[in-house]
Amino acid sequence: LAQLMPASANITDKLRNKVAAYIKDNFIDTAKIGQGGNSTNPVVNDLDVALSVSPTINKAIAGTSNVIETKVSVAGSSITGKVVREVGLFDGSDMIQRINFSGVGPFASNEDLEIFIIMEVE
Fold this sequence. Notes:
This protein is mainly beta. The protein is 11% helix and 39% strand. It is built from 1 helix and 6 strands; from the N terminus they run H-E-E-E-E-E-E. It has one helix at 13-26, and strands spanning 30-34, 56-60, 67-75, 84-91, 94-104, 112-120. A 3-stranded antiparallel beta sheet has the order 1-4-5, with no helix packed on it. The longest helix has 14 residues, at 13-26.
């Protein structure tokens, strides 16, 4: 029987594409940016130091692909003088992804912040 069982089973490209589309359409509806920069605790449900701004979020999947491309944009006038070190993607009030990074900023009122997040379904 062991000889009939594959060592590993892989999902098809079509399923990867469908899972990526489902995540994009059903699990990413808002984003937040913040000033916290430490590692992510998997049980927390919000950013470390969220800023009270409402970023614009654009989601796309290029053609038939398993890659979700998300752009989070904030006008500099909303974050003047701030340094941003974290971004989170949310499904309602549930944080589904948080990325911390080296600080960018401080921002002038005539600048815009754009953060690009690329996720791949394997």
